[in-house]
Amino acid sequence: MLQHYWWLVVSLLGALLVFLLFVQGGQTLLFGTAKTEDEKSLLVNAFGHKWELTFTTLVTFGGAMFASFPLYYSTSFGGAYWLWITILLLFVIQAVSYEFRNKAGNLLGKRSYEFFLFLNGSLGTIFLGIAVGTFFTGGNFVMDKMEITNIAKPVISYWINSWHGLDAAVVPFNILLGIGVFLAARTLGLMYVIGNIDNAELIERSRIKVKITGSAFVVGFVGILIFLSMLTGYSVDRESGFISAVEHKYLLNFLQLKWPVIMLLAGVVLVLSGMTMIFLKRDKNSFYVTGGGVVLAVWSLLIVAAFNNTAFFPSNVDAQYSLTLYNSSSSEFTLKTMAVVSVLIPFVLAYIVYAWREMTKKKISTEELEDPNSIKY
Asked: Is the pTM of this model over 0.90?
């Protein structure tokens, strides 16, 4: 029960992270959507007040994974380090860009930092999607818990090739998922602009672009679901621990568990409702409606990646090395202790909602940026 509970928590954090990538999606609007320096400043400052939420959620996701499923953390974060270092660098340049873009006499110039923000918003989201894809497609690693007794090399799991995770970037399903995450982030970024920036020209351009990007996201998500339903997954026998390949495993997980299907359908309905609001120009709350749908849809995908006795990180070297909820989790004592502490999560979420509402009560405008007392990026 504790292992499943903590996968629910970790996967929820992953789903919230995908939603919060609207900041990254908004950064891609700096080129092509924003036409003037004032419009670029509006975008940078609108999303600059939220970028810490995305970065903090990414760190929290990693921390929760480390505490609850440490073997996955050491295998993926430690073994596929080129993939994660690439993601980390793409997020580091985001933080640097927000801090230095508007500083007098900055070394690289304003446009360079804007280009860094664009890279973070495009490549950063795609590579995060690729990393999420490995929950289904796995990696080239071996795992032997008895190696912990090897004094010369006490390493339980390690990668067998020199790519160390970058090989995930050429797996078709991972690429499709990465593009899907990018389209979701850009769609939400456009919707956020429509609801939170006071600039008629920028809003109108965003309305036009969100119809194209949002439609591409919906089509792409359908493609992801079709591809996922055809993937072969790996099932673990609870008694023997033997792991075997099962065709259409993730489709079977949806059908056998049933409740993730309800979550997925609810998410799809919310996303389509948000898009309909855009087309009807009743788009005041389209960002939150679509965002809620994205959270439910992604959460359901991550749940079927591990529930129903499924290996959530398959080894492409030997299926018996694959990681499951049962062979990769922390001790019962650790999971119990963390479960007690997790009762504080609703209070933290309530504070985040309160702070969010306070920051977005008033639309950001050029007049506000001209105020000498306002915080500008």
From this structure: yes
